[in-house]
Automatic annotation (TrEMBL):
Pfam families listed in its UniProt record: Hexokinase_1 (PF00349), Hexokinase_2 (PF03727)
Source organism (scientific name): Microctonus aethiopoides
Swiss-Prot/TrEMBL catalytic activity: D-glucose + ATP = D-glucose 6-phosphate + ADP + H(+); D-fructose + ATP = D-fructose 6-phosphate + ADP + H(+); a D-hexose + ATP = a D-hexose 6-phosphate + ADP + H(+)
Name under which the protein is recorded: Phosphotransferase
GO BP field: glucose metabolic process; glycolytic process; intracellular glucose homeostasis
Annotated pathway: Carbohydrate degradation; glycolysis; D-glyceraldehyde 3-phosphate and glycerone phosphate from D-glucose: step 1/4; Carbohydrate metabolism; hexose metabolism
């Protein structure tokens, strides 16, 4: 017999029943989507696997979780003072930011965006870093600060191995970047060299981080209990504060650090096959349609890059089975990538509001004029896929909270999916509470960790350096 919490968890995971007048059709659709629903027993099994993968990763054993040491051993404490730069590189556009901090509070913030042309993203890395340095220099000179020593935090949102707070070795390019001669090189050193060749500013690169780490840091300026950072956008990742004595990968000399931020790199959770038991036929097709097959397993279940594609694949299957859009066909819906995750969020908003407006507008883009049952089915599919994503994220966050054993933890979250999806936050609050009822937690939206967070990490790096000198 299930204990009350398990029963409530089991029942809460089940989304509302599909309301159709045709009982046979309703049952066929429900049966097909059963594979998308996770039971409470499956949720607990995933928790155990995630816990095991974390422990293996932190002890340098084979694991699908990288558990990378960021070498950031403390959070903002309100003493941060001065001018700090951030360079935020993660896509075809990047930003340079200037922050002025007084008693840890941002009193001035200047930002400029720049575009990276395709040839710079795909040729030798030297011109790319020359261009980054040029933009940083131009920005600093435009601020009239070329003669001021400015510490810079470098947000480099690509998989990397860190050997210290200011050494980040690129493992692989992602997104639209492919400069082969940068792989296995230190991105920080390449930026430092490019700035030194110019010699027209006094910018000092003092830290490298990714956007997830920056989100935790930015969250800590909003809430002192922040100890987990989460990105839930096009991609997904999480990081958390770990006890330093548990971390085996630590290359520089230790200086009595009590804790350190660990970058989990959970997008790859399951790349070694440990999550294959929840992989549906729709996930297999989603993976086959992706650029990097058999990788980023967890990200393909939950992130904004893939959630819309999962929904599209299910809708196409229902259409081919004669269960959806029976009065018409849609060739454009057959195109992989055509049903973006923004559409899922819009349709979910209709479900929340009890209306059909956005659903009709989205389907019109595919030249579909739906009847009432079509709309109910499409909304149901979006709910099932979204609910599974929320549950999977919650399972891992609940496991983290249990692992950390803190009295109270605030989880700082950023990302377009979290921001725009109308139900993810409420589902996550519900599921985390059910999965770990003894833990006190809170979700907050921490915007621009990749920018502000990076500048604050530069301030922390400077504080640590001055303390050791």
């Amino acid at each position: 017999m299930m204990v009350p919490t398990e029963r409530v968890l089991h029942e809460s995971i089940q989304v509302n029943a599909l309301d159709l007048t045709d009982d046979v059709k309703r049952q066929k659709i429900a049966n097909l989507l059963t594979q998308m629903r996770l039971s409470s027993a499956t949720a607990r099994k995933i928790q155990d696997i995630f816990r095991s993968e974390m422990n293996k990763g932190i002890h340098l054993q084979p694991s699908s979780l990288q558990m990378e040491n960021t070498y950031i051993p403390e959070l903002p404490d309100g003493t941060e003072e001065g001018l700090f730069l951030a360079l935020d590189l993660g896509g075809t556009n990047f930003r340079v930011l200037l922050l002025e901090l007084v008693n840890g509070v941002v009193v001035r913030e200047d930002v400029k965006k720049y575009h990276i042309d395709a040839h710079l993203r795909t040729d030798s890395g030297i011109p790319l870093f020359e261009y980054l340095a040029e933009c940083v220099s131009n920005f600093v000179i435009s601020e009239g600060l070329q003669d001021v020593e400015l510490p810079l935090g470098f947000t480099f949102s690509f998989p990397m191995i860190q050997h210290s707070l200011e050494i980040g070795i690129l493992v692989t390019w992602t997104k639209s970047f492919n400069c082969p001669d940068v792989v296995n090189k230190d991105a920080v050193q390449l930026l430092k060299d490019a700035l030194a060749r110019r010699g027209d500013t006094r910018v000092k690169v003092v830290a490298v981080l990714n956007d997830t780490t920056g989100t935790l840091i930015q969250g800590a300026t909003q809430d002192r209990h922040t100890a987990i950072g989460l990105i839930l956008g096009t991609g997904s990742n999480a990081c958390y504060l770990e006890r330093a004595d548990k971390v085996e990968h630590w290359e520089p000399e230790r200086h009595g650090e009590r804790e350190v931020i660990i970058d989990i790199e959970w997008g790859a959770f399951g790349d070694n096959g440990v999550l294959d038991f929840i992989k549906t036929e729709f996930d297999l097709e989603n993976d086959a349609n992706s650029l990097m097959v058999n990788s980023f397993t967890f990200e393909k279940y939950i992130s904004g890059k893939y959630l819309g594609e999962i929904v599209r694949i299910i809708l196409v299957r229902l259409m081919k089975d004669g269960l959806l859009f029976t009065r018409q066909t849609s060739e454009s819906l057959l195109i992989p990538g055509s049903f973006i995750t923004d559409y899922v969020s819009l349709i979910e908003q209709d479900t929340v509001d009890g209306c059909w407006l956005h659903t009709k507008e989205v389907l019109a883009k595919f030249h579909i004029v739906p009847d009432e049952e079509d709309i109910k089915i499409v909304q149901y599919v979006c709910e099932v896929a979204s609910n599974r994503a929320a549950l999977l994220v919650s399972i891992c966050l609940a496991t983290l909270l249990d692992h950390m054993e803190r009295e109270e933890v605030t989880i700082a979250v950023d990302g377009s999916l979290y921001k725009h999806h109308p139900r993810l936050e409420s589902w996550m609050n519900k599921y985390i509470s059910l999965l770990t009822p003894a833990r006190k937690f809170k979700l907050i939206h921490a915007q621009d960790g990749s920018g502000k967070g990076a500048a604050i990490v530069a301030a922390i790096a400077l504080r640590i350096k001055s303390r050791l000198e």
